[in-house]
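pasting for the record
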Amino acid sequence: MGDTTYRFSIGPWNIGRGADPFGPAVRPQVSFDDVLDAAIALGFEGIQFHDDDAVPDLETLPPARIMAEAEAMKRKLADRGLVPEFVAPRLWEHANGIDGGYTSNDPAARTWALERSKRAVDVALALGCELIVMWPAREGTAVRESKNPIMASAQMLDAINVILAASPQVRIAIEPKPNEPVDHAFIPTIGHALALGSRSADPARVGVLIESAHAILAGLDPSDEMGFALAAGKLWSVHLNDQNGLKFDQDKVFGAANLRGAFNQVRVLEQANYAASGAFVGFDVKAQRTQKPEAATAHLATSKAVFLKLVEKARTFPEKIAAQCIANRDYEALERTVLEHLLGR
C-alpha cells in the first residue's frame, strides 16, 4: 500500500450562520479569513470554492479584476500553507439560474450559464486549481412536463464539453444529487454521471464527486456508489456526511445516523488506497442550528475524528476471520464479526 495519509478539505459553507429552510440565521457571519484560520486549526489542507467564494461579486467585475482577485486569493492561501481543491460555478443562487442554468428554458439563461462556467475555469486556473465541480442543483424539474429530458441530457453534455474546451488543464467532477432544490434532478446518480462523462469530448477528464447524503437520498448505499466510481478510476473527491433517511439534505456529522454505513465508506476508500491518489476527503456537514458561535466548528472536528477512528477500524478489521466466514457461507458469523469489531470487542 502507498501513502496512507489522508488530505482533508473544507468549504466556507461548512461554517454557516445557523439558518435552515424554516428560519433565519442565528449566528453572525463568519469571515473568509476566519474560515481559513478554522481550517488550519482543524488540520484541513484544502479549501473548496464556489467561483464567487474566490472572487466575490464576480458578476459585476471586469475580467482583469476577476483575475487579479483570484491571484490575490491564491497568495492568501499560500501564505497560510493551504491549497485550493476545486472551483464550482455557483449557478443556482443567481436570478438567471432560477429555472436551471444549462437546462433552462430561456436561451439567454443557458448562454449565461455557459459563460459563467468558462469564467469559473479562469478563476480556478488563476488559483492554481485544475478541478471544476459540476453540481446540477437546479438542472431538473418541479413539473415533469416542463422540460424534455432528451434535450436536457444533450444540454448537460454540451455544458461539460464547453468546460473541457475552456482549458486542456481542467478536469470535471460531477456531483450527482437526485432532488432538492428541484423535485427531479437530471444526473441523479453516479451511474448517470459516468455515462454522461463517457460521451464527452474527453472522457478521461470527467469524473465524479460523491456525497454520502446524495447517494442516500437516491436510496443507494454510498459505499457502493464509491466502489462503482473507484472501479472506473473516476472518484476524484468525496463529501462525507450522514443522512437520516429519505428526507431533506441534512448534512449531518459523518457517522451520526449510520455508523456502520460510515465504516463501509471508509473501508472502500481504504481498499482502493484512495489516500495515495492525493484526492481530498471533504466533510459537507453543517453545524446544528442550536450551536453557539464559539463552538460552530465542532461538527467538522467530530466528522474528522470519526473518519480517522473508522480508518483505524478498517485497518484492524479481522480480514482472515471474515474470509473464513465467507468461505463457509456463514454470513451470520460475518455479521457478528463486523458488529463486534465496531463495538470494540
